[in-house]
Amino acid sequence: MSKSVTSEPLERLRAPVIAWQLAQTFWVGGLWLLHFVLLPALGKIGLAPLLVQEVANGLRPLLVGFSVACVLLQGMSLVVALGLRALWRDVRGQLLLAVLLLAGSYFAARAGWLGDYWQMFSYLAMACCGLLLVVQSPPEARR
Fold first, then answer.
1. Long-range contact list for 83-86, CB < 8 A, 24+ apart?
2. Could you give the dihedral angle defined by the CA atoms of residues 35, 129, 20 and 16, in that order, rounded to the nearest 10 degrees?
3. The whole model's pTM is what?
4. b/e sequence 2-22, b meaning 16+ C-beta within 10 Å
5. Which residues contact 80 (CB under 8 A, 6 or more apart)?
6. Cα(22)–Cα(48) distance, rounded to whole angstroms?
7. What confidence tens digit (pLDDT) does each residue in 68-99 have?
């Protein structure tokens, strides 16, 4: 066999893995960076707590929306690599679905349908689900 015959399918199927890792880096890193690095740093440099809260109220919904877009990209990568059943049977798919539900509950709490504590819980639970996704291996294509 020539090298091109064996390497073409592998090159084509590396794209979902790269998309998975890139999207995961952006949304999980963004959630953790905002909550555990940026907001405490703003408070530590002497900004008023009300100003830090306003920054948080402005950035968190944007980051949760961006996380939804990245999770949808990860879901498509998972479906391309493993098929549609992986969304329900694979741990990675279940975590992605949990993040989508938590993002929905975050925006429901923001709209006033749920309490303020539920909004923060949803945000932190999304971050923890993201951390659990980080320790999972990226979806490899079936051979």
1. 83/142, 86/139
2. -160
3. 0.82
4. eeeeeeeeeeebeebbebbee
5. 16, 141
6. 35
7. 999 999 998 888 888 888 788 889 999 999 99
